[in-house]
């Protein structure tokens, strides 16, 4: 089992929405991906609840599970995932990722 964890910092305003609104859009889009991509077992999105302007704080975190590295690679290039990536790139300022074997 492969876990794929991504954390983002969001722009205060982007695409005509606030950071909080874009976080909710991201959550909906990302959590819907397992319904569209068979290689993706699950996708869980958390939105930060802590206040502060700390450099260490991210706004949104995604945790996904795939059976294998091949499935993770297939998910990464899947057209439905790429549509979500296109939106996310417009609203984020920073991205961090970790992939590991569970």
UniProtKB/TrEMBL annotation:
SMART domains the record matches: Dabb
Residue span, Stress-response A/B barrel domain: 2-100
Record Gene3D superfamilies: 3.30.70.100
PANTHER family in alphabetical order: BLL2683 PROTEIN (PTHR37832), STRESS-RESPONSE A_B BARREL DOMAIN-CONTAINING PROTEIN (PTHR37832:SF1)
Listed name of the protein: Dabb family protein
């Amino acid at each position: 089992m492969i876990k794929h964890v991504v954390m983002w910092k969001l722009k205060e305003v982007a695409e005509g929405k606030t950071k909080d609104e874009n976080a909710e859009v991201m959550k909906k889009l990302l959590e819907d991906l397992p319904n569209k991509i068979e290689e993706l077992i699950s996708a869980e999105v958390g939105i930060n609840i802590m206040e502060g302007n700390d450099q260490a704080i991210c706004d949104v975190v995604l945790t996904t599970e795939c059976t294998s590295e091949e499935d993770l690679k297939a998910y990464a290039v899947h057209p439905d995932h790429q549509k979500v990536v296109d939106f996310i790139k417009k609203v984020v300022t920073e991205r961090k990722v970790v992939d590991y074997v569970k």
